[in-house]
Amino acid sequence: MWFFNKMCTSKARLDGKTVVITGASSGIGKETARDLYARGARVILACRNMEKTNKAVEDIKNNPPSRMTKDEYKNNVGELAIYFLDLRSFKSVRDCAKNLLTNEAAIHVLINNAGVIMSQYEKTEDGNETTLQVNYLGHFLLTLLLLPKMQSSSASCRIVNVSSIAHIFVDIEFDDINLERSYAPFRSYAQSKLANILFTKELARRLKEANVHGINVYSLHPGMIPTEISRHSNLTSFPSAAFFSNICIKLFLKNAEQGAQTTIYCSVDEKIANETGLYYSDCNVATTYRKANNRHYAEKLWNLSCRLLHLEPEEDFSTFLKTVSRQML
């Protein structure tokens, strides 16, 4: 285990708050759900495997975070709920969003956590490479669909996009976004994580320019964690990934609870309540690299993402969100 690991020290409570976490049935998503449930939040686990998610709910109910005793835990928790979400299907994303908008009075925090790495090239029913859609495009759509609800929920909402330090190894392949000509598992994964940072920055910019206040956007690197994200992959098929993986496993490996700390920090810490569009690692603002700092890249990716979703990126952001919402009808 790496000797340096920052834990979220915020004592903030989330009583009366509703949090949506994608991919919360295992790994850092589940540990994030456990922590926020312990803070009194209504935590919604938006997942694909219902049997596995039900088991996760039971585990969360019965086992507190390491910072708490069972007695402290049982008297201060919030609520847990499950919604079906398969990010490989835009229809499923729209259905999940519609159900959330219909059944939930408010959404205060959205944590786009779900992720995958596919060892073989595969496309979704929507025609996109699976890793790109699950890790990025599905979250892009879900966020846009939930934004109006978040606007009306509170003067202080947060969107947290789980990225990775892997973003430093790649660029966005705008002419081959689905990597049909150059697929490798790690390249696809890293591109999707770079996309999450660019999305964070561009969404923060557009919200500011549209004079939409009270919704802050964060991206983060959780650390190297032995979770199930790579269950479909073999990273050694990409030479740089093998080297990167071996070094990081030796130096930086965290368990799932440790890996969830920066996500938790971005979701609750009071000191960063007015920050937006930034990237974090080990519960601190971190430096992004290469194309992650390119505003032109961020805007170009936004426009390409809209085209992949059959949307026109309206100049007026409010009009754009209404257009997105009509897709659920």
Strands, helices and their partners?
Elements: E1 18-22, H1 27-38, E2 42-47, H2 50-62, H3 70-74, E3 79-84, H4 90-103, E4 109-112, H5 130-153, E5 157-162, H6 185-209, E6 215-221, H7 239-252, H8 256-259, H9 261-268, E7 278-281, E8 284-285, H10 295-308, H11 317-326
Parallel strand pairs: 1-2, 1-4, 2-3, 4-5, 5-6, 6-7
Antiparallel strand pairs: 7-8
Salient structural properties:
329 residues; globular
Summary?
The chain has helices at 27-38, 50-62, 70-74, 90-103, 130-153, 185-209, 239-252, 256-259, 261-268, 295-308, 317-326, and strands at 18-22, 42-47, 79-84, 109-112, 157-162, 215-221, 278-281, 284-285. With 329 residues, the protein is α/β, with parallel strands linked by helices.
**Form type:** globular
Q: How many H/I helical runs?
A: 11
Fraction of residues in helices? 40-55%
Mean pLDDT: 92
Q: State the end-to-end distance.
A: 49 Å
Helical/strand content category: alpha/beta
Mind describing the biggest β-sheet?
8 strands, mixed
Tell me what portion of residues adopts beta-strand conformation.
5-15%
Stretches where pLDDT is under 50 for at least 5 consecutive residues are 230-238
The value of Rg in angstroms is: 18 Å
Number of strands: 8
